Description:
Elements lengths: L1 E6 L2 E4 L4 E9 L5 E7 L6 E7 L2 E4 L7 E6 L4 E6 L8 E8 L15 E2 L3 E6 L1
Parallel strand pairs: 2-11
Antiparallel strand pairs: 1-3, 3-8, 4-5, 4-9, 5-6, 7-8, 9-10, 9-11
Amino acid sequence: xxxxxxxxxxxxxxxxxxxxxxxxxxxxxxxxxxxxxxxxxxxxxxxxxxxxxxxxxxxxxxxxxxxxxxxxxxxxxxxxxxxxxxxxxxxxxxxxxxxxxxxxxxxxxxxxxxxxxxxxxxx
Length: 123
């Protein structure tokens, strides 16, 4: 099992930037890692995923968010630029050792989840 701890959330004005971090520990695999978010009253949605150097993004964040991983630190990052009020949500990190790349933005594929970090963007 993998333990995931997110950090870096906070409050920012529209147009600002934040960088989220997700530190992974434990004996499980982090072959696939992803960021999800859940806004009040909405379902959780995939934001960005990464595996073996490949990345994919939800259309709503393409060109504004960048997912990356420091393998030496086993830490996943999400650089968020040009933030909008609609980006306000709790952001979760997720990991799994096996899956289908074409399902990597789907939450069913992931077996380990962090506790979430709040991101609030004001207009």
